[in-house]
């Protein structure tokens, strides 16, 4: 009974917020970031996508999700051309133009992937300093990593598969990426037996959020979404999504 009442209160709150602005579907953008967000020809999939779909359905709040290169997606929400951006991490700079809900959609941890044949060369993180690392264009990791010359001087690409191909060709020494995302790409490329993670090198554990532009009314919308998301995480449907994507 308590859960039903909670959903009812959240529904009424968020609907009131939306009706106060307009009744059009929310415009949400993201980048292809499997297994959290997967762009497919006929529909969108992924852990974060399905969680947001389930919460929005419970709330009766329509939305439209579109995929763009990450830098473009960030600029679109910064300039309020869209309502929200999915699978974004919280940074002080981003908080100047986004409302972050208190509840993340998912969590991730950043690691470094290397060619298995070079494991003795890179037995720990310190061995990577001064080496060639591949990172994603427009991505922030966390202050701990972003402040390092290793990341500041990294080769940046908008294509994670390209980074792993460069790694296997010996043109990069390591690839930095969220563990789940890197593992998904390695399996997709058939490199699961050839690529490993640098031991004892885990960073930036934090949330992936659905963050809202600073358009009038979106602060309350972010709060309402967080409350509904927190309730959804206590359901069997949420556990099924995690199991489906290995979360």
Any overview of this molecule?
It is a single chain. The chain is an alpha/beta fold and 247 residues long. It folds into two domains: 2-106 and 207-245, Periplasmic binding protein-like II (D-Maltodextrin-Binding Protein, domain 2, 3-Layer(aba) Sandwich); 108-204, 3-Layer(aba) Sandwich (D-Maltodextrin-Binding Protein, domain 2), CATH 3.40.190.10. It is 38% helix and 23% strand. It contains nine helices and twelve strands. It has helices at residues 2-21, 47-59, 70-78, 143-146, 149-152, 160-168, 179-189, 218-232, 236-245; strands at residues 26-30, 38-39, 44-45, 63-67, 84-88, 98-99, 106-115, 133-136, 155-157, 174-178, 195-197, 203-213. A hairpin with a 4-residue loop joins strand 2 (38-39) and strand 3. Helix 2 crosses helix 8. The radius of gyration is 19 Å and the shape is globular. The protein starts with a helix and ends with a helix. 39% of the residues are buried.
């Amino acid at each position: 009974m308590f859960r039903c009442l909670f959903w009812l209160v959240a529904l009424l709150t968020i609907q009131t917020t939306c009706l106060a602005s307009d009744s059009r579907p929310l415009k949400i953008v993201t980048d292809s970031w499997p297994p959290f967000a997967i762009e497919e020809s006929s529909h969108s999939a992924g852990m974060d996508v399905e969680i947001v779909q389930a919460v929005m359905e419970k709330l009766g709040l329509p939305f439209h999700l579109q995929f763009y290169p990450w830098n473009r997606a960030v600029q679109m929400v910064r300039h309020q051309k869209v309502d929200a951006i999915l699978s974004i991490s919280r940074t002080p700079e981003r908080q100047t133009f986004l409302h972050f809900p208190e509840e993340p959609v998912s969590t991730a941890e950043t690691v470094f992937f290397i060619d298995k044949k070079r494991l003795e060369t890179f037995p720990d993180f310190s061995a990577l300093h001064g080496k060639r690392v591949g990172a994603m264009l427009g991505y922030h990791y966390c202050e701990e990593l972003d402040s390092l010359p290793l990341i500041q001087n990294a080769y940046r690409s908008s294509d994670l598969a390209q980074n792993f191909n460069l790694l296997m060709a010996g043109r990069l020494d390591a690839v930095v990426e969220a563990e789940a995302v890197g593992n998904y790409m390695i399996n997709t490329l058939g490199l699961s037996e050839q690529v490993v993670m640098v031991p004892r090198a885990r960073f930036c554990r934090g949330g992936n959020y659905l963050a809202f532009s600073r358009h009038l009314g979106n602060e309350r919308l972010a709060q309402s979404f967080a409350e509904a998301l927190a309730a959804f995480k206590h359901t069997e449907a949420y556990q099924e999504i995690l199991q489906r994507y290995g979360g």
